[in-house]
Amino acid sequence: MQNDFGNGKVWKIIMAQGMPLMLAQFVHLLYNVVDRIYIGHLPDIGAMALTGIGLAFPITTLIAAFTNLFATGGAPLFAIARGEGDEDKAERVLGQVTGMLVIFSVILFLVGFFFRKPILYLFGASDASYRYADEYLKIYIFGTLGAMLTTGLNGFINASGFPKIGMMTIVLGAIMNLILDPVFIYIFHMGVAGAAIATVVSQVASCIWVLRFFHGIQAPYHIQKQYVKPDWNLLKDIIPLGIAGFVMQGTNALVQIVCNITLRQYGSDLFVGIMTVLNSIREIFQLPASSITQGGQPVLSFNFGARKYSRVKEGIRFMTVGCMVYTLVAWMLVLMFPKALMSVFTNDAEMINNGTHSLFLYFFGFVFMAFQMGGQTAFTAMRCSKRAIFFSLFRKVIIVVPLTLLLPGLGFGVDGVFLAEPISNVLGGLACFIAMWFTLYKKLPEDGQEAHI
């Protein structure tokens, strides 16, 4: 059966989960990446408009962070409950996550909408770039509820053993976004605002699809009203585990803010736009590796709950090696075609020339991301929340942020900002994986025994 993770070849199950997820996530990227492509090629204003979109990144990333706080905390518990055969607990976890996503989407909307001007200037906006950042954000923020429910609950569709349904969640919205973007941006001449409207409409459509699934007869688990009301006995398990995902996205937002401010200080708005392009390229190239680990996470959790530890170890090995091979190939492609990749997002000659050099620096050591992904996924899947949180903080807060602030002043200039990321990949990735190997992998007992990790 497609939702039985305890039998069959582990690598096949992970790929069966990961491949539809990869397609779904690739299509999901089109929500934002296509926006950036269209906006970056707007006549005369493309480069500055792209900078404005980059300034809104930290806010959209924070929305994703609060989604992860509950979704990535609930999904492993949901999968473990399934592995233990506790169907009622699985459904209660689903209800708790749904309720918290709704509550926090309202809070984030109110803060983001009414305080967007001081927030954007705090995040590095100039008078020239603020116009475009505000034009995009004041519309995008209306899609907060749809975005959080879609992203947060779609993981539960995958963890239920329906990755193809999860894939269709994202495909539906992305196809709408592809169609609506040129309509609103060019036909209706709405520019940056048109891109935001297309995204919001697409997010709402995806959200309706997800909710329809969990209220349909096909779903083995349903969102029930009695389980949506906050239950602190469950939340005290969900939130600590979800803090790792929250920290990962939250520190991404922190890094984006620090980068934007530092790039303006040592460079100009142009380099904020270049960082927007580099982040877009990284999202695309990181996607297959991310899909392998996200597809593997419910498989690891299920087998951990079922005390099939040999399958857990097999899954960790497959995820790590698979990610290493892929990220090495991706790194080579970036080195071979830097200008072509930059040209996808902009036709501004100055941005392409400066961005090509920055791209080489930013992607150096990209292969080491595989170790961070493998270690982080294993910690999260087996409820090692404190270790998962620590290594999220270690790579971003302890390594990236200080280097982003220090390297430019040590003579590297704007290059120092782009160098901080690869250094963190090497140091943080290796530290995370080595710790996971010796404190978790090596301590898993024989199948059927109780694990003490």
User: What is the gyration radius calculated from CA atoms?
Assistant: 21 Å
What is the 3D shape? globular
**Oligomeric state of the chains present here:** single chain
What profile does the largest beta sheet have? Answer: none
* Number of DSSP E strands: 0
Structural class by sheet pairing and helices: mainly alpha
Number of helices: 17
* Fraction of helical residues: over 70%
Task: Give the SSE string.
Answer: HHHHHHHHHHHHHHHHH
Uncertain runs are: none
**How many structurally independent domains?**
1
Query: What's the overall average pLDDT, rounded?
Result: 89
- The end-to-end distance, rounded to whole angstroms, is 30 Å
Strand content: under 5%
Element layout with pairings:
Blueprint: H1 10-40, H2 46-84, H3 87-114, H4 116-122, H5 127-140, H6 144-159, H7 163-187, H8 191-214, H9 225-228, H10 232-266, H11 269-305, H12 309-336, H13 338-345, H14 349-362, H15 369-381, H16 385-406, H17 414-439
Describe this structure in words.
This protein has 17 helices and no strands. Helices cover 82% and strands 0% of the residues. The protein is mostly helical and 453 residues long. The two termini are 30 Å apart. The model has no long low-confidence stretch (mean pLDDT 89). It has one domain. The protein is globular and about 65 Å long.
Quick structural overview:
The chain is an all-alpha fold and 453 residues long.
List keywords for this structure.
single chain, 453 residues, mainly alpha, 17 helices, 0% strand
